[in-house]
Amino acid sequence: MHAWESIQKVLDYVEDNLAQSHSPKELSKIAALSPFYFQRLFTRLVKRPANEYVKMRRLARACETLEDKSKHILDIVLEHGFNSHEHFTKTFKGAFGITPEEYRNNPVHLNQIMKPDLLLDYTMIDENVPLITDSIVLEISRKTIDIPEHYIGYCAPVSVSEQAPLGETTGIDVPGLLWDKFHKQKSSIKGLEHDCIEFAASSFGDYEDGTFNYFVGASAIPGTTAYDDFVIWELPAA
């Protein structure tokens, strides 16, 4: 068994037993590794210590349940392994910047820690050869664009520190909010192609401010110009 497989075994176990307490020593036994080596390997592969990972996965699961307003928050707290309402609220706000009650009353996209599939870090994805993992199909293909393509939508600066690679950070999901804004207006946007293709892109922003620019939109009819707070994004021939 490869070392990463031992950690994946622990991740699978934690996911099935999130409400239970898990000490690093107990988890190291599942991995069949010494506690010291387990802690170092887990942190290196998962990008955070085991205790913090378990806490963040509990929060992610709790977020799903919070949307069901028929459930009392205290029941959700106990169901997902938190000691008290106060502890849950403090942990939730520390991760996302809002309280559970604020999220329940006004749900927004949140960056949540996802269960990683460590196999993907050790799998080479060949061009035009689909890879299926966790019911998701990943495929890389190459496309040559002879004529520039144009898209209309919204663009906003996003903090690099708050938008680390997917599943590695918490907080408000700014790109997700942009998509919400776009989809609410999509039916009334002027210049969209029929059966338009939705598109997202990131580009360099203000280095000193630690931001990058994120655009969301859909394919536009040639000649469409920007209006109101919509912008035109050009994908150049390449």
Tell me what the structure shows:
It contains eight helices and eight strands. The protein has 238 residues and is of the alpha+beta class.
Brief digest:
By secondary structure, the protein is α+β, with helices and mostly antiparallel strands. The chain has helices at residues 3-16, 24-31, 35-46, 50-66, 73-79, 85-96, 100-105, 174-185; strands spanning 110-111, 131-133, 136-138, 149-159, 171-172, 198-204, 211-219, 231-235.
Keywords:
238 residues, alpha+beta, four-stranded antiparallel beta sheet, two-stranded antiparallel ribbon, 18% strand, globular
Strand-helix topology:
Layout: H1 3-16, H2 24-31, H3 35-46, H4 50-66, H5 73-79, H6 85-96, H7 100-105, E1 110-111, E2 131-133, E3 136-138, E4 149-159, E5 171-172, H8 174-185, E6 198-204, E7 211-219, E8 231-235
Q: What is the β-strand count?
A: 8
Shape: globular
- Regions with little confidence, pLDDT below 50 for 5+ residues: none
Largest sheet: 4 strands, antiparallel
SS class? alpha+beta
End-to-end gap: 43 Å
Order of helices and strands: HHHHHHHEEEEEHEEE
Q: How much helical structure, as a percent, in the residues?
A: 25-40%
**SS field, number of helical segments:** 8
Mean pLDDT: 87
Strand portion: 15-25%
Strands ordered across the widest β-sheet: 6-7-4-8
Instruction: State Rg.
Output: 21 Å
